[in-house]
Amino acid sequence: MKLLLIPALLLATAAGPAVAVRMESDGVRVGSDFVTGAAVSLKECGATPLLVSGSIIESLSGETLAVSLGEKQVALGAGLRLARTADGYRLTTHGTAFTVESAGRTLTADRDASFKITEKGFDFGALGTLDGASFAAKVGGATAPAVAAEAVQDVQISPERPTRQNYQKRFRRLYSTDPLTNGEAAGSIAVRQIPRVSPSGAP
What φ, ψ does residue 43 adopt, rounded to 5°? Predict the structure, then answer.
């Protein structure tokens, strides 16, 4: 009996550790916890925080999360949500494009992609197929649109246009002496520049 146990132990050691997150037909298993129902809860797989319900898995960490789908496996990247559907699975992001890759072949999806498990691998419908027992899904490089900052312009106001881009043409005169004394009083340019006021006080 002991001799029969030795090959089994060696086989289990060679197979490596079991995947801690498994999507099953009636729920999601995270370690020793089995999550069912539609309510989303926060779980931890080791040091990796997860959003989990009975049909979805989303990693909140920057690390890749290995998710078992029975005989197949998905390496789920950050920013991706894996959901079980009636006839397969669905990958979604929060509005960014992503790629799925296996055996040197890469498929690109806009925001979501549905797939089914086949004997050879995975069928993504119109996107194509991937062969193999696993694939990696990751969000593409975030490229923020470049916004050119407007340079400060040297605004010049022509005599024909009193205003330009909310800038108004104004003149200021500086006098070294009082312009209202002696001959510089009644007919002086300083007096002519004083706004006229009507008896009612309106200009």
Answer: -125, 170
Q: How many domains does the chain have?
A: 2
Distance of alpha carbon 53 from its chain centroid, rounded?
Answer: 23
DSSP state of 96: -
Q: Are 106 and 115 in contact (CB under 8 A)?
A: no
Q: Quick one: 122 and 187 in the same domain?
A: no
Instruction: Print the domain residue range for 96.
Output: 19-139
CA triple 175-178-181, angle to 5 deg: 135
Q: Are 82 and 172 within one domain?
A: no
Q: What is the pLDDT of residues 185-198, one digit of tens each?
A: 555 555 555 555 55
The whole-number pLDDT of residue 143 equals 39
Question: Can you tell me the distance from the alpha carbon of 39 to that of 80, in angstroms, rounded to the nearest whole number?
Answer: 18
99, amino acid identity: T
Give me the DSSP letters along 43-78: EEETTEEEEE-SSEEEE-SSS-EEEEETTEEEEEPT
Bin 185: left if φ > 0, else alpha if -120 < ψ < 50, else beta. alpha
